């Protein structure tokens, strides 16, 4: 029996049409790997590090003042990173009072939490590179055609790169806050769809360095790069987060996926975030007409979190450099006959012939593919199945 293979040309032809036509309800799920794929101005590293790099930088910065405490906390957390460490610190700050754990009482852990957030804010508060970048290319694609539905961006990142790119491109967007002096969060606006389709919806699932608490304990958007309102998956269970925007933002993600014939496209997201992944799994099971395309950076053997869901949910398709899992079937890539005689330049946008690797797991390459879908090389409709979902 012949082994199964996946033809990238077949799937990317259909995907390109979806991006170009403007009729599909499309959302983006952007994780920490996206800005980590963009070099900083000096060319010495990523613009903003992913979680592992962020953990190293924050712990190094706090080593002199809190090194012993943080080392002890790391030992007690499996696969510790800065998100799980901050969750542990905040949890202790809220319950231990005057008792000491890891050498600090409740007030000490509260101050350590503030110090961690301050360092995170310093690291991720980066300006968008001048000129063209992956973020400006995505904005170009969003503004390039008339749409029946507004693009929705769901991101677990705390940086302001999307805000800067949208404003640079003069593309209006709504992030759930309204007002001018101290913009406040309005849950009622999030739950509806009354905005014009030309407006982008930007949902910061874990908070933003532009948020802070006012004198009444309400979350406001200040735009100054404050980082006091960063929240991670473990923190969602605490009462304080239920009074803030986070529950409403996750409800919005659920509502998006529960809408008929929607497509969510992820990039830079590892699926190791159990809180988000559980919601995605639940919604894909409840709504078979929704589709999720996961463009992953690592070989498929390393993308266990995404593949575990895709094995159960055929409407989740996982695209890796060496192979893909589509409709629950894992198989290697093998290009076939091109969909048209002028397909060569388009294929170069997603396929590395020399290395025989699929390229769209890189955020910068995926963004370029989005932008190029607006070119005159858009193909006529081809009768073929859409990966894990319904045709547009």
Brief description of this entry?
The strands form 4 sheets. The protein has a 10-stranded mixed beta sheet, with helices on both faces.
Structure explained in plain terms:
This protein is an alpha/beta fold and 392 residues long. The chain folds into 2 domains: 5-43 and 129-372, Rossmann fold, CATH 3.40.50.1220; 51-124. It has helices at 8-21, 51-61, 63-75, 82-95, 106-124, 134-142, 161-168, 187-191, 239-242, 246-257, 274-286, 304-312, 344-347, 363-372, and strands at 5-6, 25-30, 152-155, 173-174, 177-178, 184-185, 200-204, 211-213, 219-221, 262-267, 291-295, 316-319, 323-326, 329-333, 351-352, 357-358. The protein has a 10-stranded mixed beta sheet with strand order 1-14-13-12-11-10-2-3-7-4, with helices on both faces. The radius of gyration is 21 Å and the shape is globular. Residues 235-241 and 377-392 have low confidence and may be disordered.
Descriptive labels:
two-stranded antiparallel ribbon, alpha/beta, Rossmann fold, globular, single chain, disordered C terminus, 392 residues, ten-stranded mixed beta sheet
Low-confidence stretches: 235-241, 377-392
Task: Identify the strand order in the major beta sheet.
Answer: 1-14-13-12-11-10-2-3-7-4
CATH top level class name of the largest domain: Alpha Beta
Alpha-beta classification: alpha/beta
**How much of the residues is beta strand, in percent?**
5-15%
Number of helices: 14
Share of helical residues? 25-40%
As an assembly, this protein is single chain
What is the third-level CATH name, the topology of the largest domain? Rossmann fold
For CATH, the homologous superfamily of the largest domain is named as TPP-binding domain
Global Rg: 21 Å
Count of distinct structural domains = 2
Q: SSE string, helix = H, strand = E? A: EHEHHHHHEHEEEHEEEHHEHEHEEEHEEH
Strand count, sense and closure of the main sheet? 10 strands, mixed
Q: What's the mean pLDDT score?
A: 88
